Structure formats: C-alpha cells, structure tokens
Amino acid sequence: MVERAKNITADINNISFNYAKTSIFEDFSLEIPNGISLGILGGNGSGKTTLIKLIAGLEKAKKGNIKLFDTNLTNTIRSKIGYMPQQNALYNDLTVLDNVDFFSRMYGINKKSHRSKAIENVLKTVDLWERKNDSISTLSGGMQRRASLACVLVHEPEFLLLDEPTVGLDPDLRVSFWEYFNKLTANGTTLLITSHTMDDAMHCDRLIFLKNGRIIAEDSPKGLLSATGNPNATLEDSFIYFNSKESGGKNV
Prior knowledge:
- The protein is an alpha/beta fold.
- It contains 10 helices and 10 strands.
- 38% of the residues lie in helices and 25% in strands.
- A 6-stranded mixed beta sheet has the order 6-7-8-3-9-10, sandwiched between helices.
- Helix 4 (96-106) crosses helix 5 (112-125), helix 4 runs parallel beside helix 6 (141-153) and helix 5 (112-125) packs across helix 6.
- The protein starts with a helix and ends in a 6-residue tail after the last helix.
C-alpha cells in the first residue's frame, strides 16, 4: 500500500457530492498516477468541473475522502497544486506582471528576488514577457488564457488542475499549450485536464469518459478507439460507443 501511494498523485475514494437535491457523484473513486496527463471528457453536467473543484478543495464531498500525495488536503498540499478555472480569474485593471505577482504571493513565494525570477521565467514561457506592463483588459482572449496559465505555473506546482484550458484558443496557440503540457509531464508534473473537445482529448496520456458522475470508460486514447472495433473510429465515435453500452445498447 505504501509503495502504491508513492506512484499516485491523487487517490479519490468513494466520494459522494450533491448540489441541493441534485446528485453529482455517488461512491465515485479514481486514482491519478504521477507524471501523466489525464483527460476527462464528458458533456455539460457530467461532473467534470465539480471533480476539479473537489480535488482543489473548493468543494467538500458529502462522504468519502481525497488524498493528494498520500496526504489529506491541507494548506501545505494546496501549495503543490495549480488550478486554472474555465473563466479567467484575473484582475482586468492590473498589468500582466501585477497579476502574476499577486498569485505568486498567494502561493507563498515571499522572497522578492525569488518571486521576480519566477515571474520572469513563467512570462517568458507563455511568451508574454514583452507584454508584462500591459493591463489584462488590453489583451486578446488567447493572451488572457496565457496569462491565466502563467498565474498557476509561477510556483512550479506538482499537480495541475486545468478546467477547459484551451477553450477559445486558435489552433496554433492550442498546439503551443500542448507542447508545454507535454514538457511538464516529461518532468514529472501531473495534469488533470477537463475538456469537451476531441483534439485536446487525443493529446492526453490517459482519458476518462464521464457521464452523469460515472466513469463509463478509461484507457489511452488509442485504446478507447480500438475498443470500438472500427479502424476509422474517432474519439466521438468511441464516446458514443461506450455511451451506448452504458445505456443498454441505445444511443441516447
């Protein structure tokens, strides 16, 4: 058990959660190994964003528990997490640099020299160093997504929770995001990525199909494609295939 935990970033054990009288998860379990990109693909209302919030500690399960790095969620563990929500959590009237500086302080980078270097590195990584003194409100939507990514990367987290990170991005920028995500996992960072786009899903090391708070399939993207028995299947075809099996053979 100890040896297994060393290879697990997140251990989600029999959690249940509801909003008012609407059940989102019931006895839901999931293990997320270290150093992979795990994608969660599902329709609206499937539980993708709620799961991210539960792992980040922004919501609390009614029962069950979530362990990160074999430890219950604490402020110390939170410092190892980077969370990028669907909507930009940026201050529009502040500059790019001031936004990243604010988040670096929140994540506990208190030494000014360390903070300055970390901010410079991350803004160069997302190609915003030349725009560091521009206010967020003057940036394009794609640049704002890059600024959001900089805010969650500045403290070099070990576990990234990315909720629809490429939404609204043009194809070239989406490619650059995935090139960077692949570098992160190659260096041991774990990524949990929610999406409803097939392009994002194909980039993940492993992929989960989520429906109504239940995992209906989990494998590599290639494994999910081959399971259909159709050599020309797309991930959309695969999702429909597993959805049909879950629904007793009816396409719904």
